Amino acid sequence: MTPDSEPLRVIIGAGEQRWEGWIPTQREDLDLLDRSTWEAWFGERRADALLCEHVWEHLTEDEGRAAARLCFEFLRPGGLLRCAVPDANFPDAEYQRTVQVGGPGPADHPAADHRIVYDHRRFADVFRSAGFTVELLEYCDDDGRFHAQPWDVATGPIYRSLRLDHRNREGRLGFVSLILDARKPPDAR
């Protein structure tokens, strides 16, 4: 936990991911489906920012909506949740095979417990329905065209992104994510 004077920036479901200035947590620390873990971890504090990369696809859509409401509650007004998931519209057959519901290969493969693959409309709606304003940062449209707008890595790095992923080089998209910013309105409670 950071001193009260420092911004509280938390990675949800960090796995091995570490970014300077961010506190990594695992499911045992902050379970997106268990409010009591959030109450115990945060107490009266609220996060300035939450970062969640390739976690939401492991929840059903209903669970994802409940998780969005929980994140909304534990963010300070004006706080940011940057979230990334596999993109249902990325036109690459091998990518889609890898990220599909149930995933490929053995049960211990990371994608084996994917419960949903989101497109940009459905994913944005999950967060809007919780009260967030939503801005799409990277995504494929219904025709499979990739869209990316500039975003500041310092406000929440997503490795599996156009700018950071080693598979995206020399104008070739090797791996994309549907990335959005969900901001809690400044006047929200």
Write up what this structure looks like.
The chain is of the alpha/beta class and 189 residues long. The protein has one domain: Rossmann fold. The protein contains four helices and seven strands; from the N terminus they run ββαβαβααβββ. It has a seven-stranded mixed β-sheet. It is globular.
Spell out the key features of this protein.
189 residues; alpha/beta; Rossmann fold; 7-stranded mixed β-sheet; 4 helices; 7 strands; 20% helix; globular
Please outline the helices and strands.
Elements: E1 9-11, E2 23-24, H1 35-42, E3 47-53, H2 61-73, E4 75-85, H3 93-99, H4 120-128, E5 133-140, E6 146-148, E7 178-183
**Class from helix and strand fractions:** alpha/beta
By CATH reckoning, the class would read Alpha Beta
* Uncertain spans: none
Inertia-based shape: globular
Q: What portion of residues is helical?
A: 10-25%
Question: What is the CA-based Rg, rounded?
Answer: 16 Å
How many β-strand runs? 7
Main sheet attributes: strand count, strand direction, barrel closure: 7 strands, mixed
Q: Report the portion of residues in β strands.
A: 15-25%
- Provide the succession of SSEs: EEHEHEHHEEE
**Total domain units:** 1
Task: Output the CATH topology.
Answer: Rossmann fold
Q: Could you give a quick summary of the protein structure above?
A:
The protein has helices at residues 35-42, 61-73, 93-99, 120-128; strands at residues 9-11, 23-24, 47-53, 75-85, 133-140, 146-148, 178-183. It is α/β, with parallel strands linked by helices and 189 residues long.
